[in-house]
Amino acid sequence: SKIVIIHTNDLPFDFFCDSWTFCECCASTWHSAERDAMQSVLGAVAPSCSTAVSGRLLNRIPQSARPFRAAPSSHRCDRSARQFLTTCAATQEAPTATPPGLSTVPWDGTPEQEQALQQLQQRMAALNVGTPSDETLRWFLRDRVFDVDAAAKKLEDMQRWRTEFKVDAITSQDVAAELASGKAYLHTHKDVNNRPVIVIRVPKHVTGEFSLDDSKRLCVHLLEEAISQLEPGTETLLGIFDLRGFASKNADLGFVRFLVDIFFTYYPKRLGKVVMVDAPFIFKPGWAMVKPWLKKYSALVQFVSREQLAEQYFTPQTLPPEFK
Questions:
Q1: What is the pLDDT of residues 111-124, one digit of tens each?
Q2: Are 249 and 286 in contact (CB under 8 A)?
Q3: 184-186 and 197-201 as β-strands: parallel, antiparallel, unpaired?
Q4: Which is nearest to 250 in space by CA: 202, 215, 290, 288?
Q5: Nearest Cα to 214, choosing from 268, 255, 248?
Q6: pTM, rounded to two decimals
Q7: Which of 113, 134, 297, 304 has its CA 20 to 30 A from that of 311?
Q8: Starting from the edge strand earliest in sequence, which strands make up the sheet with 301-304, in order?
Q9: Contact 143, 154 (CB under 8 A)
Q10: In 3D, which of 10, 50, 9 has the Cα closest to residue 28?
Q11: pLDDT tens sequence across 7-35
């Protein structure tokens, strides 16, 4: 069996570790925390990579030794083979749309769906927590795959939170100080999929500079504005995290936990994609902690370079200015 050792100084951020062991023959990779992520890229490029490195026997491990383990980081494989593998992985275009299985089921207006909507309207009226619009009721039904009980529970939680947090009362003036810091804003242009775009300049968010409640209000204010800009046929948003210059002072796990919670509970499936731009190595420990919180929705997250962001998500005219 031919084995290629792939070193992480040659790979995108999401594959950071000492080294990878990759079998060209079966496209298997074996490493503790990042196995699935590596397979998602190399599983697709393996056929062409295998052709390119054919005959380069870099290491030989008997069948009985599988599953393979990462080789010592001191090992260095053939440079040209590693470069080719890296090129395949880095140039493979990642989809900009929401991954399959992570979007809501469609509303077709069937009798069964209309009946579920009527039942949900009645349930919400009886709860005395306010009655959301029919559009919101449909969205939560779709999120819960038309389970009326589950949708009602989630809607009740959402309505109580909106009342307690005074979401509808938040104004631009309430968040003016944080907006002035430039840490986050709603972009004036949509992305290539016509989604409203929220840009977060992570290095400008310093933990403790503003209260957690202030940061939460800014987040909610931007989300409400972005959702209000959704056009017919578009239902989700794009979130961009600019990580250039990220430092430990920017790691605010309390705020990140809030983000995860509101997108699961109060704005379900409204994020169609989350793009992390130029993540430095120091970001790795925080991402390793946060990724399990996201569960299957970690598939929404894509790590890209500034150039990839420009090529995949925008036209030259619509690209946010800091990425030009």
A1: 999 999 999 999 99
A2: no
A3: antiparallel
A4: 202
A5: 255
A6: 0.72
A7: 297
A8: 184-186, 197-201, 237-242, 271-277, 301-304
A9: yes
A10: 50
A11: 433 344 443 333 334 433 333 333 333 34
